[in-house]
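This entry is listed below:
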Amino acid sequence: MTTAAILEILARGGTAGLALMMALIFLRDAGHAVGARLGLLFALGVAGYALVSSNLISEALGPAALPLNLLAIPTGVLFWWFATALFDDRFVWRSWRLIPLGLIILAATGHFLPAEGSRLSVISILMWQAVNILLMAHAAVLAIRDWPDDLIEPRRRFRIALAGLVAILGITISVMEVRFAGTVFPDWVFQAHGMTLFGLAVLFTGWLIAAPTDLFPPDSSGRQPGPDMARLAPEDRPLAARLEQAMADGLYREPGLTVGVLAEHLDTREHRLRRLINQGLGFRNFSAFLNKHRLAEAKRLLASPERAHDQVLTLALDLGYGSIAPFNRAFRAETGTTPTLFRRAALARA
């Protein structure tokens, strides 16, 4: 056995060990957060994938490789589930999220049943990796899209790492699978693959150990607590008072308001304001903080007989929303109904 082969086995074994450590960390919060449960599945999938994606290890495992393969096959889907739950504080599990898993299982069946290298096997690999590439690209888009709003600093940093590193390398691996579909992988591909997986596992495990214990909201309820001045450090209370006054003055109505603009208005550093809104006031993202103030005013205006003839679009624009669609989504998530139905019921009661 060559030195390179030994190093590959060590790297893949180390990756599997780190993935099991990640699984234990996710298990800590799995009882009350769907995101942690999906993270647990993803970590187990990585452990299996690290081992069975090597011919050397897969052949040595013999029959034991079968259950590991069952874990490894949907790793791309498990990663997508985990990433969407991690980056969306209002994530709710829906049955349609099983569709990519069904496509992966169908592709895997078409790949493993016929002889390797057959036309059906090659088509199945292309389908398999196309689904993986789309899922990873979508996860990268989610990570970048809400990056400015994120108030949990370790998660905010991880968004950039995922978009710039994990997704790119994952897509590269899928492209390599397509490139060598129907042929035998060169030895250097397995070795580079094993080393890359180990490097990613080290980085991800280190981040997860340092991440806060409330990385996921309880059962993804997305509900935000109200302000609690008792939670604030004494040195942050003057800033909290200025922030409360700015909101009372209607600064939340400013279209396109960002944390940076708000920090400049309050004459403070952006990172300090982020920490205040997150750790002091309990909000996980800036949009939720703005929506708390905007939607409270929206409900007041919609219930007012004096504003009964104002169009909902006009109210949305006055409250700082760029269009009617984000206002409707936020309002429905908060109240469970549409602004029009809310107004109708409120005016009927009045």
In short: The longest helix spans residues 3-29. Residues 3-220 form one domain. DSSP finds 16 helices and no strands in the chain. Residues 52 and 58 are 5 Å apart (CA to CA).
